[in-house]
Every structure is written in C-alpha cells, then in structure tokens.
Fold each of these.
Amino acid sequence: METTDQNKSEEQQNIDNELKKSKTSEADTAKSHGEILKQQIIEGQETYDKNPISILLSSLTAGLEIGFSYLLICVMFYFLSGKVAEDTIIKSLSLVYPLGFIMIILGQSILFTEQTSLLTLPVLNKKRSLPSLLKLWGLVIAGNLLGGYLIAFLLVWLGPRLEIFDLKTVEKIAIHVTQYNNIVILASSILAGWLMGLLSWLVAASKDTLSRIVIIFMITAVLAFTGLHHSIVGNVEVFAGLITSSAISFLDYISFIALALLGNALGGFVFVALLKYRAFVYDVKG
C-alpha cells in the first residue's frame, strides 16, 4: 500500500514537473498541449482563489449577458416569421446566437459551460478537491440561472412594448427547445458540453482577440445550427416561456434545466478535461 502511494506521488510529481517545463510559445508558434493544459490549470486555480461573492457576481453577469443572444434570437425569429419557412428561421438563428458568448468570454465573466472543464482540471491535477469543485459549480450555476431569470423578465416585458417581438415568439422558441424527450435532451446536452469545453481549450490556444472571436463564433454557431442544448441559454429560453405561456409548465422547465446542466457538465468533464488531461499524463509516462 505504501509502495502504491509512493508510486502515485512520484507520478504526480512527474506530471507537475512536465507542466512546469511548458513555456509560452513564440508569437508565431502554436502552443503545445502542455502549454495549453498549464494555462488552463492556472486559470482554473485562479478562479478557485477568488472571493465567493466575486464569483457569484461574475456568474450573475454572465447570466445577464447571455440574454443578448436570446434578445437577438427573438427579434430575428419575429422579423422573419411569415417571410421565410420556420425551419429556415431556426437555422438562421445561428448567425446571432454567438453574440452573448463573445461578450461573456472576452469580458471574462464566468459561464458554467465554458468553465466546466477549466475548473475540473485542477481537481484532476490534485491541486483542488472534488467538494471544492462542486461548491464552485454550485455558485456559478446559481449566478448564471439568476442572471437568466432577471434578463428573461426584462426582455419579455420590453420586447412587445418596443414591438421587436411578441409573446407568441417567446412561446414558439421555448416549445422548440423542450419538445424532445429526456434522453434526447441529455445526449444533446452532452455534445453541447463537449463543444463548450473544447471552446475553452481552443480559446486558450489562440493568441489574439480576433482569433478568439472567430473560434467562439464558430463553436457556438454550430450549437445553434444543430440545435444542441445549452443549459444557460436554454434557461433563458425556457424560463421566458414558463412566465408567459401556459404551454410551458414548471415541470417542463425543471426537467429541462436538470438534464441540460447534467449533460453539459458530463460533456465538458469527460470529453475535454478528462481525456485531454489523461492524454498528457500518458505522454509524460512515455
């Protein structure tokens, strides 16, 4: 038993030493796997070290800012209704969907799905504990959801008064998001979490703001075009439907948000954080 613990300790020391060797690449050179992983672990640890109130406020800000994606979705849906086929409208929403994500990520607010793999890496690297991860996830999710509730109330009140969309549009979008069975929503959310974890990894790999904008647009547009379920955007979409339409029940909302959060977390953790970290570990082992 003592030998096993010693071997694990030596293995962890080798991993840490290899990460320390990773230096920042020159401006015209692509970052290595180790460099990206080191940056992600450092950024993740910095989030753990923040004041809980700061984390909650940053998460609340992200929940509010994602509302700008929802605002444009509603406006575009309403503007194109009756002019083009509804399935064409749904696909075209991918052109405006990325805006909120660009604002959040470049503005460095804390979004659950973008931070899922980032916050998991320090746990995998044995620098943070699982309970601390779950506590941090809870804070981030609470802030994101609360921000989403606030912006949903504001937009469903303001939209009809500005005549930029109506409540029927809100209902159609909410029904479109929730019309699938639970297994489909969960599987869809896992893929969305995978893409968002990959987004975090690719943003860390990029070296300038324009590259980051392109990456964010590309990944989140894929989410929208394919209809994959994102828990934080979906929170605004479904909650707005809940407070304005009898077609969306409280059970519909709770079922959706639980499955979407679970799926997004699994996707970000398993397919990005775990696999990329283990790939590095096996490379260190030789």
Amino acid sequence: MTSHWTAAHVAAIDRETMACAPLFPKPQPLIPGVDLWDYWPVQEEDGSQAVIAGGTLFILLSAPTLLDPEARHGMARLRLMHRVGNVWRDLGLLFENGFSPGSREWSGSAIVSGDHDHITLYYTVAGTRGEQVLSYSQRLFETQAALSVVGNAITLSAWSTPVEMLVPDGIDYMRDMEGGGAIGTIKAFRDPAFFRDPADGAAYVFFAASLARSASFWNGAVGMARLMPDGQWQRLPPLISADGLNNELERPHVIVHGGRYYLFWSTQQKVFADGGPTGPNGLYGMTSDSLDGPWRPINGTGLAFANPPRAPFQAYSWFVLPDLTVQSFADMIGIAHVPVDPAEARHHFGGAPAPDLRLQIEGDRVWLA
C-alpha cells in the first residue's frame, strides 16, 4: 500500500511555531582541500552505529575543493573515515580509480556482519564510466569487503565486483533520471538504505525514487525492495508518494522506536511544486504501526524540524539513528539566501559534518530534544 504525503499536510506547517535546529558556526575542514557531505556510519543490522576500533567508521561523499561548491556533485567519490569521540581520521578513498561502473559515487548505507569480519555497502552509481558529458543516470549497487582490525589499524580488503541490485521498471519507477539536469530537477533512483525488520527478520532497502506514471513534474517518492531467499532484491511498489507536491525525497531511511516504524527523509524548499504550499529545508517523516502502512505524517505535517530562519540552508542530508541521534553535514552557513556568485557560495559552504542533534519521539509527535 502506497501512502501519500500531500499538499494539505505541508500547508499545515506553521513557520512561526515549527521546530528549528540551533544555529552553529562554520566548521573547520576535516581534510584541507577536500569537501565532505552526505555521510553515514557503518551500522549493525539493527541500525545502531557499529563500534569498530574504539570508534565509528563513516563513509562520506568527497570531492576536491573547487570555487563553486555545487560542482562537487559531478566529482563525488566515496571516502572512509574513522571517528573516536570528536577526532576524525582520514582513511582515504573507498575505491580505487575506475572501480565503480559510473562517473561518480553517491549516497547509500553500509552494514557490518555480526562477527565484524566484512562490510556490505549499498550505494548509488551516477552516470556511466568514461562519459565525456556528465549524465544523471542512477543505479543501485552492492559490494563487500573483508574487515580487519588490529589495535587502531583498520584494513579493508579489495571490494567485490559491484552487483546491480535492482532497476527501475518504468511502471512504478521512472527510468529517465535526467529531468533537465538542473539542480532540483533531476529525477531519483538513488540513496539505498538498508533495514532489517525486527518483526520478521526480513531485509529491505529504501531509496529515493520518482514515480513513472505521473502527470506532474513533481513526482518524488520513497521506493522499497525486499531481499529474497535467493539473494535477489525484489522491487516493491513505492512506500510513500509525494506526487504533485515534491520532486525529491532524499536519503529515506527507517528506524523502529517504541514499537512503531518511523521513516525519515530530507528535502528542500526549492523542490516543492510551483504554485503549491512549500516546506522549509528540513527533516521530514511519517510513522506507521507496521512496515506495510498506512503511514501518517509525523506532527500532522511531515516536518520534524527545519533549519533556523536566519540560516535556512545551514545543514542538509539528515540521518536518524535508532538512539535518535541525528547526523547531517554543514551546507551554507550564516546566510539567508541562495548564493548566486560561486565565490560567495564557497565562503559560506561548510563541507564538513554538522553538530549532532537528538530527537524525542512520542507516538506521532517528533521534536528536537
């Protein structure tokens, strides 16, 4: 059953009373000369952060620092880092040059085995290898590497040949990802997030998608697939539809809290439908008593919290863990408008992890602790 996030839900957002994240200063780069954004921890199958070598392994999108920070999307490579407390250690690019079957690597999720001897990565391959002009095709792949930890030394073996998990069918999910190519118009088949359902032990991935049979340009959705006994992923109908409302429901992921399911995603004001109600850049979500739904917008609107009004682009790509920690990256810091000039954008771009936040949840209500 597909549930719907609608204009009526978003119209009920009260900009005067909505929950907002606190302001924070522009962080120092973790790696000089490198921008970092969308990131996720290596997780146990229950979704908790895995403790590895006394800390947490993270996979991040990375690119060389360029004048225009928006150019990073066309150069994105996955990077491995290790955090102990507030200290980050760079372990380098995750893959060798030419490993992925695309021109760049986008977001996903990673799960460590129960005995911590290997990691499975689910990620987005964007474009095609060797293309001269960047395309916006998106494919979902999985790969594995053996993990070895000796003291503080963390070693990964060569990654297995990436295997495509599933493809859009042109019936539920759009095949054409281009959407004109401009920021905010690109269609979605990306951001696979692994989830093990405690109710029956079944494994799923959720992903950002675009509806195939839609009369609207704004046809964002949350897709899902289930892992079958033969090891193949079975494509399922969309879990959430934002048809006619919003173009991109990015990095969707599910946690279980208090016996309920909570599905979260990130979206931006600029990708809401023209002429309709718009929400702020923020963390959104829905809740259900079962994975099958029906799903209800948290807080009646879907909005968990927004960036602060004085800095509406301060952070993005929020990721909620089962302990209700919320991770994100520092985007445009200390600015209330979208920079047009690349030099201005570079001055304000954070390009590093943002401070962690924490949610509180009670039934359909979600708020910042």
Amino acid sequence: MPSAELAIFVVVLLALLFDYINGFHDTANAVATSVSTRAMTPSFAIGLAAVMNFIGALSGTAVAKTIGSDIVMPAAVTQHVLFAALIAAIFWNLLTWYYGIPSSSSHALIGGLVGAAVASQGFGVLKTAGVIKVVAFLVLSPLIGLTVGYLVMTALWWLMRRQTPSHINRVFLKLQILASTAGAFSHGSNDAQKSMGIITMALFGAGLIPKFEVPFWVTLACAIAMALGTAVGGWKIIRTMGGRIVKLEPINGFAADLSSASVIYGSTLLGMPVSTTHVVSSCIMGVGSAKRLLAVRWAVAKQIVTAWVLTIPSAAAVAALTLFFVNLF
C-alpha cells in the first residue's frame, strides 16, 4: 500500500477508534441519571443508549462541517497533523476515563487539532473567527445547561407541589426513560459528527473528494463506532455523574436529562460542537441547585471544572509533542 494511502487509512482508523472511545467514555451522559434513580437497569440503559446514539449519529452533518472546515484550513492540514491530533485526543480520553473524570472529548479533539496544526504550520493555519466561535460555544454551553437545569427543575417542583412523593416517583420513573432516550439521541447527533469531520478533512486534504461533504460511508462508520463504544459502557464516569455530583431522585433525573437533551440537540441544529459531558454535568448541577445549593457536592464539581479548563491546552501540548516525534522518525 503506498505511503499516502497508508497514512489516510491510519487516520481513518484512529478517528473511528476515537469515536469508539468517545462512546464508552460518554456512556454516562445518557444513562447515569437513569441508573442512579433505578429508572432502568444498567444493561437496558446502556443498550438503549447505544441504539439511540447510532440513530442520532445519522441525523445530520452540520457539526462535522464545523469541525472539519471552520477551525483549521482543511487544505493546509496534513495526515501527520490529523494523526497527532487524534493521538492526543485518545490519550486524554483514556487518561480521564481511567481516573473517572467526566472530561470533554470535544475539548480534547479540538485542542489536539489546534495544537498539531499550530505546531506544524504556525497560527496562520487557524481560522480565527471559527476558533473563537467554537471555543465561545464550548464555554457558554455549560452555563446554559446550568441555567436550563435550574429553571426546568424549579418549574417541575412548582407543577408537582401538591403531589405526594410516592406519586411523583412513580410518574417520573417512567418519564425518565423517555428523557434518557432523547439524551442518548442528542449525544449521538453531536459527538459522532466530530470524527466524521476529521475523516472528511483527511479525505478532502488528500484530494479523494472534490468538496467538503461528508460521504455516507463515513457517517455510517462513525455511527457504528459510537454505538459499539457506548455498548461497552464507562462505569467509572457513570458513578461520578450518577451520584457523586448530587443525590438524584427520578424527578431530578428527568429534569437533568430533558435539559441536557434540549441544549445538546439545539447546538447540533446550529452546527456547533459542544461538550456533551460538560452540558450534562452542568445540567445536573443546575437541577441540584434548584433543590438547594448545598445539595450539590461542589468539591466534586470543582474537580470536573478543573478538568474542563485543562483539557484543551493539555491535548494541544500532547498533539504538538506527538507531531514532533512523528516528523522526527
């Protein structure tokens, strides 16, 4: 196999591997609240999340186009740059998964892409307006999630104020299944498209496709990889998000899932990549805050926020270092 074709093959393989790891790293985004409140058994919840992630991944390509064409100039990106970016993102995902930290796969991938591109050709290769827009949305989306979670939970408390706790639990145990289904769909609709964008960038940069359009086989392959990864399940992060941030009842779980699904899918429709992990975590914090501020374990929240802040620069540094060694050898 010629070296150019081999390089593209390796990049595609790594992008699918990142998608798979993203799936099991982010399984908690869709199922943690339902498992915590016992609305669903863990095996059923993960199976449902895998199916809905697959369906969600087939729903569009707007986010993929943003990742592949609005951050770095596609024609200027080599296969080596994409290789280094993916290695950095995979490394950060595995590291945070190992320690049970719900960090952002999106931040890791974007940080890796920016770090590798800058290390290769300097800051001129970046599309400044696109980078600012994407980073701004990555920062704002958790704040939006926190606010939406608080407002939805406050509204639900008001609507159910005359009902008994047992009645509330019976109703929202069933409704939480629907909310989790929507959450898994929204996760697939946003996160799977990030690998689609990287693969399409590789194909476009190599001249294998005439314009930046995501081929159907890329969409299907990424959807399958995401679903398979989700089916494996990232149990450490499920425990963190399901119980360590705030103690959840069925009504809280429903509010968190409904809020996060709305914010994530709204971002997908706008073509904006967001951290589904950050949005879900912040919605859980918002829901807990509506009950009372002390209901949130802010020490755990602080650890999560620290990981948020460190992810982009850390992934960028790893990508730059990886590119150095790739070019060296």
Amino acid sequence: MAALMASARARVQDFEGEEDDLEDEEEEWGGFEDGDAGEQPTSLPARKDSSRKAFDKVFKQVVDAADVVLYVLDARDPEGTRSKEVEHSVMAAEGGNKRLILILNKIDLVPPPVLKAWLVHLRRYFPTIPLRASGPAPNAKTFDHKQLTVKGTSETLFKALKSYAQSKSLKRSISVGVIGYPNVGKSSVINALTSRLGNRSGACPVGAEAGVTTSLREVKLDNKLKLLDSPGIVFPSSGDKAAKAEEQARLVLLNAIPPKEIADPAAAVDLLLKRLSASLDMYQKLLDVYSIPPLPTYGDVTTAFLVEVARKRGRLGKGGVPNLYSAAQTVITDWRDGRIQGWMDAPVLPVAPAVSATSAVNGDEVPPTGDQKEIVKEWAAEFKLEGLWGDDAADETDAMVS
C-alpha cells in the first residue's frame, strides 16, 4: 500500500510540476473538499498539496478498515469516474482479501440499452449493481427503468451486504467503505441504505456541489454492518499543458470541481459540445433545452452557443453584452443536474483483462486475454447476487432493463 501511495504521489508531482511540501504531516482537515484532489484553477489560492496528503491518509484508512469496498460510478460516464489505481489498491490490500463491488449510480439519466451495455462490460471485471440512490433534480431528463427504483435498488444492495456479513459469521460487524469521484453520489448511496431502515433524516450530507463530504464518516446500519463514507477520489493525469486543460474540463463535466473553483467553464462547455455533436439526436436535444436555432458549423461554435444561451437565459452584462462566463456556468449546472441529456457508450470488447495479485501490486496493465469471470462469479456468490441484478446472463439483463 505504501508503494501504491508513493506512486500516486509521484503522478501528482508530475501533474503539478512541483515537489509536494511534506512538512505538516499531522495537519488538520480544515478546508479539505472533494474537488481538491485534482488540479485547481491558477486564479485561486493553491490548496492542492495539503488536500492531496489528506486524501492519501483517508483513502488508506478506508481501504485498511473496509472488508468490502463499494466503488460508486456515474452511469453517464463510468470509465471517466473509474480509476484503475484505486482498483489495484483495493485488490492488493491485505493479500487480496478485500471485496470490491462497482455501484453504477444515477442510472435514471441513461436509457435502458446504454445501462445494459455498461452492466455487461463492467461485470467482466467486478460484480456490478445498478442503483438509483436518490430522486432526480428538478426538470431532469430521466429514463424509466421500471423496477429499478430508489427503494428497490437500495434494498438489493442492502440484502447483498447482509448476505456477505452472514456468510462470514464474524463476531464483529462488517465494514463497508464507500469510495468514488466527487458528486457521483456516495453519500446518497449511504442515505438510501439508511432510509430503508427508517432513517429519514439522512445519515450523510448530500448536495449537487463537489466537496459536500469533507472527512471520513462512519455510519452504523445495524449490529452487523457499518459504512465508511469518504471524500471524493480524483487521480489527476500527468501530461502537457493541453492535456492538463482537457483533464480540467473533463473534471468539470464530472462535477468533481466545486463551481467556485472553476476558472474556465467555457472549456468544459466546449468539451461537452464535442461529445454531444457525435450524436445528432443528443446535439439537437441540447439546442432544444435553450430553444436555440441551428448553430453555424464554422468559426467558434462554442462562443456562438454561449452567446445564444446568455440571451435566452438573461445572462447579460451592461449594455446587453452576453456574459459568457455566466452562460457557461448555467450550461454546466444544467448538465450536472441532468437537464441536458448525454452519456458515454460502453466499449465493445471481446474479452477483459484478469487482475492477478502480481499485476495488482505492480499496477501493470494486463493484456485482454480472457474475462475475469472466475473472480466475478466467486464474489457474486458470496453476496448472493446471482439473478439479483448481479448476473450478466442475457435473460437477467434483458429482464432488468426491458
């Protein structure tokens, strides 16, 4: 684990371009936010170093303490909210005795065929459960997945965790760590589980802005289960200036950076337009959100789009000049809350890499020589997931999203 954390720190040093100051090892958590693990806008005070050290500390605490790790992913961009480093860290911990389950959250924001494809893909690696941890934001564009309701999916997850706890027959309670990018719904997952036990007040604070969970929290479900809620995980990528700018825009679209710390929301809107323009249907739906006529296909399309948004939403400055920054923030908010439809399609792979203990420790990429079916099957049996939204057999998946 120490080697993995050292490797992660090395990546961050490359990303930031400067050595991390390690003088205050015992510093307090004050000011730590979920989005701090990524690169911060240059126009704001730098808090990257202390936040990264704080993240390393709490992430290690979660992995060390947890018997089961729930890795929460955003259904609109599962791969974008997934880190191989995190998976390797969990798999390598305690001689490979930890259990990892992928939680595909916000499923109501993607259509059934997209959900089905992602479940098939992700279940090649780890057991995966679809989840609706909370209701949609106002005016969000959602899809009906029938029995995959907030109540139904949270009960499924709870039963799976209880089955695992009972199978271990331990005298102590089972610890379940909840990890994931900022704003993927980690705290909502915990609240969905506690709500089914009659806790209506909510065990964890939730919000649409990154940075709601700022420290490690422990929530007791019953005498056999306790949950650990942690701040968001962001592993920044090293690269040249252009690559860093694109990474920053990607993190904004994931809502992994608090709005007040977004230096250039227009760059994120530009990336969003590029993604949605790959589908004529999605691109047209975006224009329909703001009642915008077809945009020119030449010149600065992003600026032209933001000018129209500013006019439609009244984001104007003195003399009626469009406020492009405010318009871009509006688009980012609408995207975050699901009022703009969009998603990433699952990759079509004939096979998936198996994760061996050696590759997990070294962080090596394993060639895709075969599905990781054995480990998925074994862990699914421990959680009694077969036929309970945990089996990727065609008939089960079809029944789930038809």
